[in-house]
């Protein structure tokens, strides 16, 4: 695995849905190719005249790639880089506003595409040579286009047991369903996937076997799990066996941390080298993808800023060609400002400079991960699950302070922005009452919601776990029918944007609410 | 008309397609509303920390609203405005990068929405009070979302006899068809529309009557026509009668010129006041829209720059709510850079400053329109159609120099960026041969294509008319079945981006190609 495959790739065109197959290249875009002929005078395209763009130049003040960041004291690093993109640069410049602000190629800015190709080869080492890059307007846009590329009404999409709801909001109105697969601390379980697919026809006689998998393999949203290499290979091989396309939605790819140790918060310390950083990353599915069945979604939302609304697909040309045809009539191209400014920064930094930035960024979010875990440990009594006899508990268990009452367990995440807590609802008298109430079809969900409302009223906002339960259709609306665990609820805590003090205060409020809820 | 309507609006919800009706607000977006509670600590959203956005500030060098532009000599106006958007501004500023580059509200930047509302009220005077504004990523994105909002497979969409192909490329793969309506120099004909709808059941027994109209009412692409007020009112009333939704795609709205007079090229001259400019505009369909059945698409692509990928819907709340739900899972929001920079400029200019800019811009494109018409008149003998006896000819007729052989006619456009030429193919022996060839099903199209290839080889690129023939399905592929005019071809010439010299050279090459083609 990982070596470049020379054997012919399988034909995957049967995966395209009817809508994608019916698409054709825009005839107007085809004509634009003639514009490149030397000496051609074009009166073809309805392009505005760039002298009438009212922007003459834009100057950026940006951090250097080597900026020293400090989570405790977030402030502007001392020395900033200042650089300009002019409409008509006087010297040879890779970028100019006359081009960036004009109608552009739906594939993306040429320099950015080249950069993304080099970066992908260096960092992810795809298993086949002629993978393609296509720019998009961020991973929401990208996933929406993947659904538009492959899904037909009535399809089921493989996802994790708990999965990102906005991804599901894209396919549910199309009449598609989730096919959730059980997880462990490595993410989706390979044995559960194999079983789901092998038994599909028996369990779902009226539904086509799933042909698309949606995964957030690093820092899974919400579960916080990161899938290691062997699991990826196992999952990939099952997808080959059952002819499933894998969509690797990887916004948290570069936010991979080591293990968490209670009260041993990492500090900035000595940062590693960019090479050390790269070798610390779990491999992308691309590295195993000798058949071109992975569509990888990369984005700058978490690494530079979400407002860029800029990302790119890495996939085989069959898929990128059809995605491009969709792009031409749906979004046309990402913002020229975003493309120019992001590519300008990446050019300034160089690829290894960007890697250095990613390494520093990872350190910053690791510190925040540690703060949040520490905050839990300071407001609850935290013990290793292995030291307690609690069925299904993994990682650490948070007990009500000074008691032996388990409130929730969590696996300190080794990637991403989220801590996924597993609440032991049987502890709460309020839950026992709900369970005794025969009119309550999903007492787990009802209890979780009641606790969530109490938390909101105590002014701590987190996200209740039921938001992440994949929707399998109207017949799966009870705890049992949806395959939910009896007596278990969840909450998702994000550690990305609060300060250490806010995290401590949030956990303090949470502990108070839980104490009160125990008496309800 | 034009006064604000107080009677209740009709319920238009039956227009939503099944996909739109199945959409719901994203649950994650709903939770974000709680963030506004005072004192709330949120560990809910997975937002990156803004201290980790590597952009500290951006400075723009932009034209003042009063910039004096010169088409003959396009250059930077003397005095530029310099202004900055900082991540954390020291004083009270309407914009900051910490917010603009974060995940944002799918509706759009609040200031921009407010601006768009005020601008719409001032300029377009909608006939009902509670119209809504929703930002999008430009009119391609917007139209794609309107198709996604309303169309079902098998639907027919009313459009003009010649219509923008990229708009059609959006609906064709969905299994929708065009319902083209004959045009005159005012654009879509009201009598032809009425007949199309009245006779629909007879002519299309298997297809649902069209419920959506796509129109570019100013500077129609490709036909260059601009629809005057009375025609709009007539069209609107027919749409009320037959319950049709009107999508007013209006990128060229502010590029409305007076009539063209041969060899009387307008110069910069004394610009009019912003008020004069506004009163010179034909009314938008919004002004007649007492029922909320107009979805207006406004964009900054032609007025500021296409690379902004920024525009907005003006429509009733039923539609904008569903468009917002689509936005949340499809594109999320337009680029934060685009929103901040465009709104920054608009704030700096003020609404009347923007109107002043639009007035100057209009003058620039009017000069270019005149250049192109003059170039035609210098390379062909141009006579008023009224002075010649050519069936169907309107506007001006271009005769081969020094002959009485009519080559094409055209109506000098009073708006937009395009001249639509109507070629008299019977003039060409090559066409007679094609017509005599029984294997040639669409000799008009074949002749147009042959001439187009000759033009390309002579290094003048324009767009053949057949690109703009609406696709009505596979059974309408001959001149006759598609309702094409016998012996007529078309080419579209854009006058937006070439210099005067290039236009003259392009027309010179065209005249040479035509002379040679006459002898083929």
UniProtKB/TrEMBL annotation, chains A, B:
Keyword list, A-Z: Aminotransferase, Pyridoxal phosphate, Transferase
InterPro entries found in the cross-reference section: Aminotransferase_I/II_large (IPR004839), Class-I_PLP-dep_aminotransf (IPR050859), PyrdxlP-dep_Trfase (IPR015424), PyrdxlP-dep_Trfase_major (IPR015421)
All residue ranges annotated as the Aminotransferase class I/classII large domain in the record: 132-407
One MF annotation (Gene Ontology) recorded for this entry: aromatic-amino-acid transaminase activity
Cofactor(s) needed for function: pyridoxal 5'-phosphate
Record-level GO BP terms: aromatic amino acid family catabolic process; lysine biosynthetic process via aminoadipic acid; tyrosine biosynthetic process
Stretch forming the signal peptide: none
One Pfam match: Aminotran_1_2
SUPFAM superfamilies: PLP-dependent transferases (SSF53383)
Gene3D superfamilies on file: Type I PLP-dependent aspartate aminotransferase-like (Major domain)
Record-stated family: Belongs to the class-I pyridoxal-phosphate-dependent aminotransferase family.
Annotated protein name in UniProt: Aminotransferase class I/classII large domain-containing protein
Species of the source: Coleophoma crateriformis
């Amino acid at each position: 695995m990982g070596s470049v495959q020379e054997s012919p790739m399988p034909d995957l065109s049967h995966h395209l849905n009817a809508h994608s197959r019916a698409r054709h290249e825009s005839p107007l875009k085809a004509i634009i190719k003639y514009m490149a002929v030397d000496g051609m005078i074009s009166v073809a395209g309805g392009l505005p005249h760039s002298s009438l763009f009212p922007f003459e130049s834009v100057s950026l003040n940006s951090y250097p790639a080597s900026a020293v960041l400090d989570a405790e004291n977030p402030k502007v690093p001392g020395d900033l880089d200042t650089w300009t993109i002019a409409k008509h640069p006087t010297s040879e410049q890779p970028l100019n506003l006359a081009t960036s602000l004009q109608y552009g190629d739906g594939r993306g800015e040429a320099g950015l595409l080249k950069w993304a190709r080099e970066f992908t080869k260096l960092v992810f080492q795809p298993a086949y040579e002629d993978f393609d890059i296509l720019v998009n307007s961020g991973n929401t846009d990208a996933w929406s286009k993947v659904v538009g590329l492959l899904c037909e009404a009535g399809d089921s999409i493989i996802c994790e047991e708990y999965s990102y709801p906005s991804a599901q909001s894209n396919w549910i109105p199309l009449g598609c369903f989730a096919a959730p697969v059980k997880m462990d601390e490595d993410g989706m379980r390979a044995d559960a996937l194999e079983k789901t697919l092998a038994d599909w026809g028996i369990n779902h006689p009226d539904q086509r076997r799933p042909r698309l998998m949606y995964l957030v393999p690093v820092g899974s949203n919400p579960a916080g799990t990161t899938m290691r290499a062997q699991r990826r290979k196992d999952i990939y091989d099952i997808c080959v066996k059952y002819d499933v396309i894998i969509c690797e939605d990887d916004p948290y790819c570069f936010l991979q941390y080591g293990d968490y140790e209670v009260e041993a918060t990492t500090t900035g310390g000595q940062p590693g080298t960019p090479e050390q950083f790269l070798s610390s990353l779990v491999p992308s599915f691309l590295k195993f993808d000798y058949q071109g069945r992975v569509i990888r979604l990369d984005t700058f939302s978490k690494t530079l800023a979400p407002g860029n609304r800029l990302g790119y697909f890495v996939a085989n040309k069959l898929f990128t060609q059809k995605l491009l045809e969709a792009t031409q009539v749906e979004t046309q191209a990402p913002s020229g400002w975003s493309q120019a400014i992001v590519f300008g920064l990446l050019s300034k930094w160089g690829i290894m400079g960007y890697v250095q930035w990613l390494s520093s960024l990872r350190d910053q979010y690791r510190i925040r991960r540690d703060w949040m875990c520490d905050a839990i440990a300071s407001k609850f009594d935290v013990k290793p699950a292995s030291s307690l006899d609690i069925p299904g508990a993994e990682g650490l268990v948070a007990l009500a302070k000074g008691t032996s009452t388990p409130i929730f367990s969590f696996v300190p995440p080794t990637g991403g922005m989220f801590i996924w807590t597993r609440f032991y609802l049987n502890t709460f008298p309020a839950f026992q009452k709900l369970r005794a109430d025969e009119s309550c079809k999903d007492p787990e969900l009802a209890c979780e919601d009641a606790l969530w409302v109490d938390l909101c009223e105590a002014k701590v906002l987190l996200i209740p776990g039921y938001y992440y339960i994949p929707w399998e259709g109207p017949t799966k609306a009870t705890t049992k029918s949806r395959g939910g665990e009896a007596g278990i609820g969840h909450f998702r805590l994000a550690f990305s944007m609060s300060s250490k003090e806010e995290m401590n205060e949030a956990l303090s409020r949470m502990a108070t609410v839980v104490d009160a809820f125990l008496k309800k």
